[in-house]
Amino acid sequence: MSLYDRLAELPIRVESYELTGHDREYGEFTRGSTQIHLRGDSAEGIGEDVVYTVLDHIAHRDAGPIHDFSGAATLGEFCDLVGELDLFPGAPPEYEASRHYRRWAYESAALDLALRQSGVSLWQAVERDPRPLTFVCSTRLGGFDEDSRSTTEPIRKRLAKYPRLRFKLDPENDWDAELIAEIKELAGVDVLDLKGLYRGTPVDVQTDPELYRAVAEVFPDAYLEDPDLNEETRSVLEPYDDRITWDANLHSLADVKEHARKAINSKPSRFGSLEGLLSVYEYCEREGIAIYGGGQGEVEVGRGQIQYLASLFHPDTPNDVAPSGFNDPAVPNGLATSPMDPVPGETGFRWGVRDS
Fold this sequence. Notes:
Elements: H1 3-8, E1 16-21, E2 24-25, E3 30-31, E4 34-40, E5 43-49, H2 54-63, H3 75-84, H4 98-118, H5 122-126, E6 137-139, H6 153-161, E7 166-169, H7 177-186, E8 188-193, H8 209-218, E9 223-225, H9 231-237, E10 244-245, H10 253-259, E11 263-266, H11 268-271, H12 274-287, E12 290-293, H13 301-313
Parallel strand pairs: 6-7, 7-8, 8-9, 9-10, 11-12
Antiparallel strand pairs: 1-4, 2-3, 4-5
């Protein structure tokens, strides 16, 4: 019996739901966030919508709770229903991938609710013990402004408070040999996100074979995520083929089967459905493919949920699921350090939250 089939049988009762806004300002940009609160039988399940376009969040919240979920009697029926709905009924999203993100928000909220109504926690339902969670900090060394230059200041600020912190970094076109050497001297880097699959976004990076060569050589143990493979870069990266991983092009099990080498970055919200995510976990475990978790800039319950999943299914890899405070330019004191002790809720799909 698959993990999904086991969870799909959980009974669920949804009597109402509410949408709440939790957008957060990060100086140069606003990270939109909407929480879905599903309620029934005096219990509440919560999920987080991590769609990137703030206007899509506003439209969602302005429309309000327009869907009827009362007919779903099991978690599986709820997920099937969500998969049939248009979750952007007023207008299509700016990015097609946003449909996956919003579906995950509803399905993760339903998973939380169904588990709470049954009085069990996720780890009990899937019969996997949560384990101490290894994580890295993902941060940009340059701003989003074209005139902004990359510096090691973001690394230094974080290491000043958390000296054992390790990193996932996005090599950018202004990284020269001096900066790369400075990074190497300062920090442990486990993942280099080359952003080679992005077009027309604020994080685009122009494909540069020499940049690929430089970072691959200087950081010999780091995964090389999402390269733009063309005639020039293929020859450059050929000696490092077993370190190439994928993220942005993985939206289904079929995508994983097509692209995966020895490791993948798994973002739960990219897969959209609970069934799709769990099928990826099971496939990679069978095939010996390592998984490291990825975040989408979650600012509320969603962050803990991806930490929970990583703790159950891939706790020892360089998971890009650091507490959201590491994304704050102020770098707050008192953040959890890696490896993070497991903190699953007594029931439901929550991390670091005690039941009231």
